[in-house]
Amino acid sequence: METQPSMLKPALISGLVFGIAASIPILNFINCACCALIIGCGLLAAYLMSQQHRAAGLAFRAGNGATVGLVSGLVYGVVNGIVSAVVQLAFGMGEMTEVFEQLQSSGMDIDPQVMEQITNFMATTGPFALALLGLFMAILFGAIFATLGGLIGGTVFKYQPTQQSM
Q1: pTM for the full model?
Q2: Cβ atoms 77, 19 nearer than 8 A
């Protein structure tokens, strides 16, 4: 009985690369295009895993791709959440206050009580709670969209070894 190749290495490589890439300001806007970086994370993990299966002479199917995509998405979420929090804490919360100022100056009809509640929330919870929220969201979106990328990769990179007759 042949053993399955480990999905840990492809998931770690893919999750680390894409998690760090998605944490870089400006580069992180690529995720605005249908979560492209997260889907790419699952796709790369599926490709790397399919190469391991091909080298071992084992079949690689869409389900294998989805599984390694899920694991890589979880790694992506943790890495992205932590690195983004560090970047955000290092450079301050200026972006959030600028967004609120722009909303107020744009003439949008925003209820002053809502703005006050948001401001109070940010003042009382501080950056730590927002970092935890960001970590949770990164893990959630990473799991969902990297699984989708892994499923696509599993379909694209599927491999069925040929049976050799004796």
Answers
A1: 0.81
A2: yes
